[in-house]
Write a structure and sequence with these properties.
Blueprint: H1 4-7, H2 9-30, H3 40-71, H4 73-102, H5 106-140
Length: 155
């Protein structure tokens, strides 16, 4: 059983949740409902998104040769490039989130946090494109068949 299909769900789920989390935290921070250090929740979750995205890329690379025999190199390359854009986009948002947490002036920090929150929306789009190309690999090009075994079912 390949590990990649299991791992990819965490960064995708986080990508979907991060706009809600960052916008919610930013609004609460702006209204004085939370202390500024609460923004560290956004930093931690974005770091988890990037880390799990890197793990998903690594597990995908591990399965690449086997799937390439079934689906073809160009389709895999398209998925790999989409995944790289997704993870690098997530890393850029992480840098912004970290900067927002480190900037000493509160107003400037909130402005950078707003950029980070906007960036999470871009990452959702990049995650969608990555998932779409992964789904195409599985459902259109039969990538899952690279791991299928004949169990003798059908008796």
């Amino acid at each position: 059983m390949p590990f990649h299909p299991i791992v990819v769900h965490l960064p995708v789920a986080l990508a979907i949740l991060m706009p809600l989390v960052t916008i919610g935290l930013l609004l609460a921070w702006s209204r004085g409902l939370f202390q500024r250090r609460t923004w560290s929740i956004a930093i931690a979750l974005q770091a988890l998104l990037v880390g799990s995205g890197l793990l998903a890329m690594r597990t995908g690379e591990h399965d690449e040769e086997r799937v390439e025999a079934v689906a073809g190199e160009s389709v895999i390359e398209a998925h790999e490039e989409a995944a790289e854009r997704f993870v690098y986009g997530g890393a850029a948002v992480l840098v912004l989130a970290l900067a927002a947490g480190l900037i000493p002036r509160d107003r400037a920090a909130r402005a950078v946090a707003a950029l980070a929150a906007t960036g999470t929306l871009v990452v959702v789009g990049l995650g969608y494109l990555t998932g779409e190309s992964g789904g195409e690999l599985v459902y259109r090009h039969g990538a899952a068949s690279a791991f299928a075994t004949d169990t003798g079912a059908g008796t």
